[in-house]
Design a protein that fits this description.
Blueprint: H1 5-22, H2 24-29, H3 33-42, E1 46-51, E2 58-63, H4 65-76, H5 79-82, H6 85-93, H7 98-105, H8 116-126, H9 143-151, E3 173-178, H10 186-196, E4 200-205, H11 216-227, H12 231-235, H13 277-282
Parallel strand pairs: 3-4
Antiparallel strand pairs: 1-2
Helix pairs in contact: 3-6, 4-7, 6-7, 8-9
């Protein structure tokens, strides 16, 4: 995890920029999102005054590069939240950090949050001892540096060498991953599937993030896989719905209210004059 965390997070962020550029409404609203992200980082560190997104009370803080990267990282786990990042990044680049803070708090602060103590106990025992020697401040600027610093003082147990070997599987194995996952993207599942052998199957939900089984169709597919009466039936379970899951469209803030002409027409909102110029031009003519 310490070796791949920064790389995978950056890949997920680049995918957000790419998909925004490919989505017409997002590209119009945020025509240079990647550049805006770099402009935001260039402003840091900086002092900010913002309303606490939970209490509404005034909050004064210093926003650092590490803090902003963390605020952006959390919503990338869930595409429905990641869809709000283009707007939040644009706002933050203009000095308005409220949306970014509010978005990040929507995925934290609950009793079900990950146990940091357990997390470091696992990573410090299993991963950090196998890290290559530090290459200096640049290599320690991200996740590697964080884990090295914490694990230098964290108690850990011994892990037997056999733990790091993956035996061939004698039964069907299903590995699920999301193409937009910022922490466990498909490349990790594919590597494990290769080690497990021909009975392992890696299924990628290209437009999903971290929690693939939260998608209804994938939950049902997993049930059919586990419930299959034979190995052959398990291997034959249709996972085609993975390719049909769309990426949520980018969030667009509400536009300012405008006056609407009075009318007795029950279908007044179908009036071409109330549509955008492009939509009005392409609308069929009323033959009445």
């Amino acid at each position: 995890l310490p070796l791949s965390d920064d790389v995978d997070a950056q890949s997920a962020l680049q995918a957000l920029f790419r998909d925004c550029a490919a989505e017409k409404a997002c590209a119009v609203a945020h025509p240079a999102l990647a550049q805006r992200w770099q402009a935001l980082l260039a402003l840091l560190p900086r002092a900010i005054d913002v309303a606490d997104p939970i209490t509404g009370k005034p909050l004064h803080a210093t926003m650092t590069t590490e803090a902003v990267r963390g605020l952006v990282h959390s919503p990338l786990y869930t595409p429905t939240l990641g869809a709000m990042l283009p707007h939040a990044i644009d706002e933050a680049a203009d000095g308005r950090f409220g949306p970014l803070l509010a978005l990040s708090t929507s995925v934290g602060g609950l009793p079900t949050d990950m146990s940091e103590g357990q997390h470091f106990s696992v990573i410090c025992a299993e991963d950090v001892p196998r890290l290559p020697p530090s290459a200096g401040p640049e290599s320690d600027a991200g996740a590697q540096g964080l884990y090295r610093a914490v694990c230098a003082h964290w108690p850990r147990g011994d892990v037997p060498a056999a733990f790091y070997t993956i035996p061939k599987s004698a039964s069907p194995v299903l590995l699920l991953s999301g193409g937009l996952d910022p922490v466990t993207p498909p490349r990790h599942a594919e590597r494990v599937a290769k080690a497990l052998g021909p009975d392992a199957r890696s299924v990628v939900v290209a437009n999903n993030g971290h929690n693939v089984t939260a998608i209804a169709c994938m939950r049902d597919a997993v049930f059919r896989f586990v419930d299959a009466a034979t190995d052959a039936a398990a291997q034959a379970v249709d996972m085609g719905c993975a390719a049909k899951v769309p990426r949520p469209l980018a969030f667009q803030p509400l536009l300012p209210a405008r006056a609407v002409p009075a009318t007795n027409d029950p279908n007044r909102f179908d009036d071409p004059s109330l549509r955008s110029p492009d939509a009005a031009a392409s609308a069929p003519k009323d033959a009445r």
